[in-house]
Amino acid sequence: MVRVALVAYQGGVAEHAYMLRRASEDTGIGVETVYAKRPEHLDNVDAVVLPGGESTTIGRLMARTGLLEKLRHLILDEGAAVLGTCAGAVLLAKRVRDRVRGDTGQPVLAVMDVEVTRNYYGRQRESFEALVKLRDPTGLAPELEEKPFRGVFIRAPAFTRLWGAAEPMGTLGGDTVAAVQGKIVALAFHPELTSDTRLHRLLLRLAKK
Amino acid sequence: MPGLPPRPYPWLRGMVEVGFDEIVSFFYRLAEAADRLREEGAFLPPPPPGSLLEPARGTVKVKHGFPVFQKGGVVMDVTNEEQAGIAEDAGAVAVMVLDRLPYDVRRMGGVARMASVSAIKAVMDAVTIPVMAKVRIGHYYEAVVLEEIGVDMIDESEVLTPVDEKHHINKWLFTVPFVNGARSLGEALRRIAEGASMIRTKGEAGTGNVAEAVRHMKTIMGEIGALRGMTHEERLRKAREYGVPTVLVELVARLGRLPVVNFAAGGIATPADAALMMWLGADGVFVGSGIFKSSDPRERAEAIVLATAMWDDPEAVAEAQEMISEQKSMMGIDVRTLRPEELLQARGE
Predict the structure, then answer these.
(1) What are the tens digits of pLDDT across the range B235-252?
(2) What does the CA dihedral A58, A64, A65, A70 come to, rounded to 10 degrees?
(3) Which of A117, A165, B58, B89 is least surrounded, with the fewest CB atoms within 10 Å of its CB?
């Protein structure tokens, strides 16, 4: 049984809960989901999903309630597995820029050796669906390499620099749109808006590891 | 959670029962069945993107996906980049640019139109969060202009003076997603069938009085509840009454909610107002005059964000309510004192 906390202030939370249930059926790994809005909701949790939404909104609420510090401890000291999508990926990054505005100075977890550029592809008009080529540096999800992933990019960011322990996991054109560092998976796109559970299965397997 | 009153609608458990992808596929099936209708000019979604060998923009998934990431959030009306900055700092998920706040539209009268392009562009340059703007009901070309300058979502709004009382914009024709107001389920479903990617209650904008938003949300939820208890034959009749495809009515009955994101709007002025609307089943809130017509906009904006995201946590809502002072709330207007011709909600059925 894997206990997964969904950071639930805002954004695509229910969509991830649905996909986790599907991934649980596909892998046979039991899943219990918890909606987390306060630090105590993170007690005894094996994995965390940081959903898409507005990273400025979610980051400010996490800082206000104390969830930010508790989550950072859970990831850095207790090795919880993490899946961050879109805004979630922004919150994981050590460096955050905006394509137009430059450094944003917003509150983030800063646990991953990546630079994320927000609104990398432009505005909603430029949002798109495209095939993402994935690789599997973790060795836990070889099915990621079998066929491309139908990525949904909504005002999406991209990983514009990786260093240290972060490894690219997916590319689109020449850009990195998925990255992994230990048990942390960060995606610029939204697997929860598709029927493809491969990346949610990876999270469950990372949590089991 | 202790101390939390159960939601009034027992079937309300979010969209977890049916995946987003499945809901979008429904709209594509609608398109497949309707090639002939499209030739006749009916409002229909575009076909699905197929192999995706090239990236595809403006698909149903991309347009209906955008509001998913606004859920649990507050969209704030602003008139300039300074207010937009305050909204972003307070944690707004988006800003809506207007020339005048609804309260002033109501007071000043005259024809209310789309905001100045220069004002919208100034806000787009000032914040990193999405920027929305309003067009008049039926004004296809104001929408063309907004799409051209790159706003993230278009609100076809009754707050502005309608140019076409009978027809709304065919929103399937646009790359940018639309939000529309509704007072009832039939109105909401007609807008969705026309291509709206998001619905909001109309409420009565610019009054600072949440009563009409409550009424509209309860009407919509009540009508959804009634659909769930009907036979297929009764739902067929309802579809005809609403003027929408039967399959859309069947989908709503199965989901127990609208098949797109549904926000509350119209008269929300305090954190408790926002939490009330969330409890009634809203996915998030729009706040119009409530923030920048109060005398404590910074604190109020932050407090409404907190109460909306944590509506299911009474302690957090109390904390939010304590951040504002009732003396500083906008004065507000009792809707019963408005003459029928002064009601904005009656515009566009």
Answers:
(1) 999 999 999 989 899 999
(2) 80
(3) A165
Kindly determine whether residue B93 and residue A54, on different chains, have CB atoms separated by under 8 Å.
yes
With beta carbons less than 8 A apart as the criterion, state whether A9 and A166 touch: no
Spatial distance between the Cα atoms of B287 and B305, rounded to a whole number of angstroms: 10
Neighbours of B64 (CB within 10 A): 23
Confirm or reject contact between A63 and chain B (CB < 8 A): no
pLDDT in tens, A32-58: 999 999 999 999 999 999 999 999 999
Q: Which residues numbered 103-132 in A keep a CB inside 8 Å of some CB on B?
A: 104, 118-119, 122-131
Tokens representing A42?
């993170």
B138 near B125, Cβ under 8 Å? no
* ipTM reported for the complex, 2 dp: 0.96
Inter-chain Cβ pairs, chain A and chain B, closer than 8 A: 160
| Calpha distance B130→B128 (Å, rounded) | 7
CA distance B256 to B13: 9
Compare CB distances from A124 to B20, B21, B153 and report the shortest one's residue: B153
Ordered by where they begin, the domains of chain A are 2-208 (3.40.50.880)
Which amino acid belongs to residue B59?
Answer: T
User: Is residue A6 a contact partner of residue A21, using CB atoms and an 8 Å limit?
Assistant: no
Residues of B carrying an active site annotation: 134
- The β-bridge relationship of strands B56-57 and B74-78 is unpaired
Rg (CA), chain A: 15
SS (H, E, C) B38-50: HHCCCCCCCCCCC
